[in-house]
Specification:
single chain, about 650 residues, alpha/beta, TIM Barrel, Rossmann fold, FAD/NAD(P)-binding domain, five-stranded parallel sheet, 22 helices
Length: about 650
């Protein structure tokens, strides 16, 4: 595919963009607690500018201190913050990119802990989190915020930025004025469409007052809010031309926050029909967004006239060089975002800062400036990698790119390890893509791959390897490791996902973790009656937040019985006995599936240590977790050799 449409230039007001792919604004957590620019934030944007993005849209940044939604949200409400933005802008321009600020006030979603008082909104309403209630703004407070937008835009202009985006989506303050659901006012700021768009009108007027006519200004809107009383496309088709008439040079079409950044269970490009609907009624360019993790999808959307530009969010995190790779005919080398949400949304592995599950470089642009081929090996070493799951694959790839002589052994007949089992669950086919990508990348190196070959301590010692990396993964724990009475042999959730189990209904699954719920989903899709027993109060623990919501909804719709607070104390002979919320109960079942966690495969580690070798242990072989941990540890270990 030539990708001629997304690589075509476009004019947005006074701003000429060299192609149609822009980096969507995404909260990063990279600002400091004074809401200022940091070297990490600069390096993060420079990497994407260097990679060819037409425009980086900086994450939502507060125009007023009462609009802060978190402790490390960037701010643009003080002249003292301008210097940092100027440094970021200069660095992006030097890298050949263009940069714009998304101006935002958190409104009802501002953090009371950060702002030190109750949050504000167009009308009194629930914030949708922490049970907080936002207070209706007075007219003086509205004008204060309108003025703040103008002053913030001036700071962006003084910093040398190429434009600003006014955030009127995702339930924040601008959206709360546009939304018939959130705006219950009956004055000049609310009521009919004309009055609900007044906030947007006064904001751009304020920006023009402080910045003049040349600074490109556009807006982001929610074209669908997924509540009956909220904004729907039909009404947005009336609102968008009004916003255009106020002078907004582009419309960035998003949706209610619940569907703005969704997991692999939702079809890529799910919001493009909203962009198409807005494009029908405006003359200015329209940006489409929403799970667009394939260049061919972006190309088709532009070619079909669905929208004029594509905002890539998570895919821009995954591969900062996506545009450069398209321009140079290397589309097959694009690192695929598989929409997991682990590093970019869940963030438990990165102390709340954005990273990526499949690309360990994201968020480490300062720490690993020589990625992926550095630091170059000062001495070529013989490296053995035992295990061909994600951790082992990444370790082998990184070590080879650095110049080492690498042998990768995998006991099964294909690379990918247990990740193939996760991809076997319904709706998770996207998970095949990173394994296929790593497999292809390894094939393009000098890594010596041995499939169907399990590493032994004798093999490792006889091969005269300088370094051994253990990536043997983890295996399911069995019930024998738990207290209780177990009278039968049971199948594991892995067996179910591998299609290697004959099961009788109703199927009882002991354990509601990732593998347990995946197995339940597969069985229920196949028409089986399923009941899950989970000891904790949280089903699907370990599943990233967005995916967990969709998974639990699917299980409920399929009729899976989800039993939490259930400690199974006996199983076998057609029965499961569990203590459920303090009461002992017995359930008549058919087959029993075990999903009570995983344990590292450590035999090879222990054997090597017994003969005086100290291997590097990575991924689930160290501690069972997730793809992000495996990829990072594999890469990091290989960088130390």
């Amino acid at each position: 595919m030539a990708y001629e449409h997304i690589l075509e230039p476009i004019q947005v007001g006074a701003l000429k963009l060299p192609n149609r792919l822009v980096m969507a604004p995404m909260g990063s957590g990279y600002a400091d607690t004074q809401h200022r620019v940091t070297p990490r934030l600069i390096a993060y944007h420079v990497a994407r500018a260097r990679g060819g993005m037409a425009l980086n849209i900086i994450e939502h940044s507060a125009v007023h201190p009462l609009g802060l939604t978190g402790p490390t949200m960037p701010g643009v409400y003080s002249d003292e913050q301008t210097e940092g933005w100027a440094r970021l802008t200069a660095a992006v321009h030097q890298a050949g990119g263009r940069i714009a600020m998304q101006l935002q006030h958190g409104g009802r979603q501002a953090s009371p802990e950060v702002i030190g008082q109750e949050c504000l909104s167009a009308s009194e309403c629930s914030a949708g989190r922490d049970r907080r209630v936002a207070r209706e703004m007075t007219e003086d407070e509205i004008w204060e915020v309108v003025e703040a937008f103008g002053k913030a835009a001036r700071r962006c202009q003084e910093a040398g930025m190429d434009g600003v985006e006014v955030h009127m989506a995702h339930g924040y303050l601008g959206n709360s004025f546009l939304s018939p659901w959130l705006n219950c006012r009956d004055d000049q700021w609310g009521g009919d469409i004309q009055r609900r768009t007044r906030f947007g009108k006064e904001v751009i007027a304020s920006i023009r007052k402080y910045c003049g006519p040349e600074l490109p200004v556009w807006c982001r809107v929610s074209a669908e809010e997924y509540v009956e009383e909220g904004m729907h496309l039909e009404e947005m088709q009336k609102v968008a031309p009004i916003l255009e008439s106020y002078g907004y040079a582009m419309i960035h079409v998003s949706t209610g926050s619940a569907m703005a950044s969704v997991p692999y269970y939702v079809t890529p490009g799910h919001l493009l029909p909203l962009a198409a609907g807005v494009k029908e009624v405006v003359e200015v360019p329209v940006i489409g967004v929403g799970n667009i993790n394939r260049a061919e999808l972006a190309e088709q959307a532009i070619a079909d006239g669905v929208c004029d530009l594509i905002a890539m969010g998570r895919q821009a995190l995954t591969d900062p060089e996506i545009v450069k790779k398209l321009q140079t005919g290397r589309a097959d080398d694009i690192i695929p975002c598989y929409l997991c949400g682990q590093g970019c949304q869940e963030r438990s592995f990165s102390d709340g800062q954005v990273q990526c599950a499949i690309n360990p470089y994201t968020g480490r642009e300062n720490d690993w400036p020589d990625w992926p081929a550095g630091p170059p090996a000062t001495q070529r070493k013989r490296v053995l990698v035992a295990g061909g799951g994600p951790a082992g694959m990444q370790a082998a790839l990184t070590a080879s790119l650095r110049g080492h002589d690498v042998t990768l052994c995998e006991k099964s007949d294909r690379l990918g390890g247990a990740f193939w089992l996760a991809a076997a669950a319904p709706g998770k086919q996207e998970l095949e893509r990173p394994i296929e990508y790593l497999t292809d990348q390894i094939a393009n190196t000098e890594v010596d791959v041995h499939l169907g070959e399990e590493v032994t301590a004798e093999f490792a010692a006889a091969g005269e390897f300088d370094t051994v990396i253990i990536a043997t993964g983890a295996r399911p724990r069995d019930l024998a490791s738990l207290p209780g009475q177990w009278d039968d042999e049971f199948v594991s959730a892995d067996d179910v996902l591998a299609g290697a189990a004959e099961l009788q209904q109703p199927v009882a699954i002991i354990g509601g973790d990732v593998s347990g719920t995946n197995a339940a989903h597969l069985l229920a899709e196949g028409g089986k009656e399923v009941i899950i027993f989970e000891k904790s109060e949280a089903m699907a623990g370990g599943v990233a937040g967005g995916a967990r919501t969709f998974l639990l909804q699917a299980l409920e719709e399929l009729g899976v019985q989800l039993t939490t607070g259930a400690e199974v104390i006996a199983a076998g002979r057609g029965q499961v006995t569990a203590v459920v919320n303090g009461e002992e109960k017995t359930f008549e079942v058919g087959s029993v599936v075990v999903a009570v966690g995983r344990e590292p495969v450590t035999e090879l580690v222990e054997e090597l240590r017994a003969v005086g070798h100290e291997p590097l242990v990575v991924g689930d072989a160290s501690k069972p977790r997730h793809m992000q941990a495996a990829i990072y540890e594999g890469a990091n270990a290989a960088r130390t050799i």
